[in-house]
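Hey, can you fold this one?
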Amino acid sequence: MGDQVFFLRPANGEWIQFSNCSVKVAISRRLTRTIIHGGEGDDLIDEGSESAVYTVRGTLDLDQYKEVLLIFRGGQPYIHEPYEENEKKVVFSKFEFDGESKEFTFEFIEDIV
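Sure. Predicted structure:
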């Protein structure tokens, strides 16, 4: 998979470490576009806020799977952001697991607080 370490914790719990992961982040600006019918062009407004989506890939054993599933179903967790090196509250938006290969994919959306 990868050579990064990733940390996840439930809202009121201890950090869980995932080794040999790959962490990808996609950051986009929030925009508003207004198109007026019959007019030329459009108005594109930068609202100034950002949204980050984190995709983490790696492998899990069955015990880790069960632990992550509880976090997924249990509300908004926190991640340790590996590039800015700070803690971020997130929405755990997607959890995929392949029981044969033990490979997982997590997707988190940053909650701007």
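The two ends are 32 Å apart (CA to CA). Let me know if you want another pass with a different chain boundary.
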